[in-house]
Amino acid sequence: MSKKDLYRPNVAMIIVSNNYPQKKEIFLAQRNDLSDVWQFPQGGIDDGEEVYEALFRELEEEIGTDKVDVIAEYPQWISYDFPPKIAKNMKPYIGQKQKYFLVKLKKSAKINIQTKHPEFSDYKFVGVDEALATSASFKKDVYETAINYFKNEGLL
User: Per-domain residue ranges for the chain?
Assistant: First the structure.
């Protein structure tokens, strides 16, 4: 297995409320398996699945709705390594390579984190700076990269 194959393909979503662009509120969810860890929804891309298929499937699985408009896509994959505590459960992977999307909830979207296999215990909308300050430390660099790109594009 090559080094690049050790990173699990993944989609990640920076979700803004349906008040965007007047309010730039970002969705953060609290993981139910790690105390006080907040993150963006994300999930693996299944074998044979297209990136956009995974994006909408993961939205439905994690927040109970896929009613979003895609505003922008980060142009490259961003990777990070799992911390040792998580890595032992993710073998053969040592980390994830992620494709980031900026998406806006449609007015008709209803968030429901009590999905078939809930991953989150709570959620909130926060400003960009709070999203960075609250995120898991091992994902902070990735979050900063994606958020700063969207900020530089005038989107956040």
Answer: 3-152
Q: Give the architecture (CATH level 2) of 3-152.
A: Alpha-Beta Complex (3.90)
- To the nearest 10°, the Cα dihedral for 116, 120, 121, 127? -140
Predicted confidence (pLDDT) per residue in 51-70, tens digit? 999 999 999 999 999 999 99
Tokens representing residue 79 in the block: 């990777």
Instruction: Read off the pTM.
Output: 0.93
Encode pLDDT of 13-63 as tens digits: 999 999 999 999 999 999 888 777 899 999 999 999 999 999 999 999 999
Secondary structure (3-state) at 134: helix
Indicate the SS3 state at residue 51: helix
Q: Element (H or E) spanning 61, and its range?
A: helix 51-63
Number of Cβ within a 10 Å radius of residue 120: 20
Two structure tokens written together for 68: 């979003």
Contact yes or no for 102/121 (Cβ under 8 A): no
CB contact set of 37 (below 8 Å; sequence gap of 6+): 30, 31, 136
Distance CA 9, CA 36 (A): 25
Instruction: Give per-residue pLDDT as tens, 98-127.
Output: 999 999 999 999 999 999 999 999 999 999
For 115, the token pair is 């999905």
